[in-house]
Amino acid sequence: MHISNFIDKKEKNLEDFFGNLENLFFEKSSLLGEGRNTLKKIQFNERMFVVKSFKIPNIFQAIIYANIRTSKAERSYTNSMKLISAGLHSPKPIGYSVHRNKLKIFQSYYISEYHNYEYDFRYLVNNFNSNIKIVEDFIKVIIAMHDSNIYHHDLTPGNILISPTSSNVFSFIDNNRMSFKEMNLKMRMESISKLANNIDQLNIFAELYAKNSSYHQDGCIKYIQRANRRRQRYIESKKILRGR
Prior knowledge:
Transferase(Phosphotransferase), domain 1; alpha+beta; Phosphorylase Kinase, domain 1; three-stranded antiparallel β-sheet; 9 helices
């Protein structure tokens, strides 16, 4: 098995960190989140990092990632850099590590600098009416993202970190699923339709999007509602397939 490490050119002093990454991940870390993927916080040389270990892919995916598509870890790094280049914020990308042989990928890790934040977007969803101003500020940032031809496919409440007292109020994580192309209104509303399940809140997102862009409010509402219905059908079909 071959281990391939990519370290940002400004972070070459972290070669020892990458060389000992697995040991640090399993023995010297604290858990931040666990599910399909695992996130851990690791301190090294008086700096704090977040390491994301992606779920080990099935045999088909492992072959695809090794021979056709880039790994999720590499895409996380590349896409985060593109966000930053567009004037948006993501925790500082440090690099990635991929374990593979000629046929398939076994394991991959994405490493970023730890980003202090006060809460994520779920707090705004749960305290919506008292935070309309910051919601509107967020929508303005999303419009800037869309105008930069960036489509974030996982724009969900848990992937948006918020620091109201910082110059970088909104920070985007879980960036491995993004595409870069000119977006029409339908795509723009699909992008933000995962931010809430409450249709009234989604309508307000659409209204704020129209208010701060050149798009008409009726069109924004129509497409965000359509995207929400499609998403709910998808969720229900998954429940049926799982026998729930």
